[in-house]
């Protein structure tokens, strides 16, 4: 539904007429909003007070983006119009309508980013549950590499049918589960992308379990 609303907004900008600065201003606002994705998500996380965010709040960056881009645009406008602040343009009904259209499109775009972030959080939670809570009757741990088989955890080794084999010291299933959970949780607090696990080793190093992220 939100994507359809965006399409309707974009269609209106293809119609003839309207102030000549309209499309340039709209495009620059969208570009600035997209480049501020990290800032937007940080504000959204703070709005949740450290807890899981609820429904998408009101616009977090839209007004700031519009004001910043208007300052850039007005410097390029000829004559006295180039010195007017954004709020003075609201006196012109046609230009007011244009600004409201741009504002609504930016709000929809912002909400799409937040919805994508929320979906990613849910995906991370599902992966974490599958890895840490998908246990069998013997309380075994699902392998973080293949996510199919149970790990065999012994005092000096951790191994899996997929080929994972790591030397350890005084390892237990409870200790390993705690290490995995704390590492994944710490990552999810800073990044909304899902990490991946692989087994790595160097020429002079013992085999290790490596968590990596595409971001």
From TrEMBL:
<keyword id="KW-0539">Nucleus</keyword>
<feature type="domain" description="RPA-interacting protein N-terminal">
    <location>
        <begin position="8"/>
        <end position="46"/>
    </location>
</feature>
<dbReference type="GO" id="GO:0006606">
    <property type="term" value="P:protein import into nucleus"/>
</dbReference>
<dbReference type="InterPro" id="IPR028156">
    <property type="entry name" value="RIP"/>
</dbReference>
<dbReference type="Pfam" id="PF14767">
    <property type="entry name" value="RPA_interact_M"/>
</dbReference>
<keyword id="KW-0479">Metal-binding</keyword>
<dbReference type="InterPro" id="IPR028155">
    <property type="entry name" value="RPA_interact_central"/>
</dbReference>
<dbReference type="GO" id="GO:0008270">
    <property type="term" value="F:zinc ion binding"/>
</dbReference>
<dbReference type="Pfam" id="PF14768">
    <property type="entry name" value="RPA_interact_C"/>
</dbReference>
<keyword id="KW-0863">Zinc-finger</keyword>
<keyword id="KW-0862">Zinc</keyword>
<dbReference type="InterPro" id="IPR028158">
    <property type="entry name" value="RPA_interact_N_dom"/>
</dbReference>
<feature type="domain" description="RPA-interacting protein central">
    <location>
        <begin position="61"/>
        <end position="131"/>
    </location>
</feature>
<feature type="domain" description="RPA-interacting protein C-terminal">
    <location>
        <begin position="142"/>
        <end position="214"/>
    </location>
</feature>
<dbReference type="InterPro" id="IPR028159">
    <property type="entry name" value="RPA_interact_C_dom"/>
</dbReference>
<dbReference type="GO" id="GO:0016605">
    <property type="term" value="C:PML body"/>
</dbReference>
<dbReference type="Pfam" id="PF14766">
    <property type="entry name" value="RPA_interact_N"/>
</dbReference>
<protein>
    <submittedName>
        <fullName>RIP protein</fullName>
    </submittedName>
</protein>
């Amino acid at each position: 539904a939100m994507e359809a609303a965006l399409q309707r907004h974009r269609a209106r900008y293809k119609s003839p007429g309207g102030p000549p600065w309209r499309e340039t201003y709209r495009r620059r606002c969208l570009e600035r909003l997209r480049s501020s994705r990290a800032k937007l998500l940080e504000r959204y996380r703070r709005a949740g007070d450290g807890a899981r965010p609820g429904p998408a709040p009101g616009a977090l960056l839209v007004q700031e983006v519009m004001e910043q881009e208007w300052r850039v645009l007005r410097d390029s406008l000829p004559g006295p119009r180039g010195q007017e602040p954004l709020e003075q343009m609201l006196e012109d009904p046609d230009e007011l309508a244009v600004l409201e259209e741009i504002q609504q499109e930016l709000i929809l775009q912002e909400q799409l980013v937040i919805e994508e972030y929320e979906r990613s959080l849910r995906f991370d939670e599902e992966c974490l549950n599958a890895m840490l809570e998908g246990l069998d009757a013997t309380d075994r741990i699902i392998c973080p590499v293949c996510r199919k088989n149970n790990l065999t955890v012994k005092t000096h080794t951790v191994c899996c049918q997929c080929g994972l084999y790591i030397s350890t010291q005084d390892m237990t299933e409870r200790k390993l589960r705690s290490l995995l959970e704390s590492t994944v949780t710490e990552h999810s607090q800073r990044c909304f992308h899902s990490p991946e696990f692989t087994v790595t080793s160097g020429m002079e190093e013992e085999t290790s379990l490596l968590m990596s992220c595409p971001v």
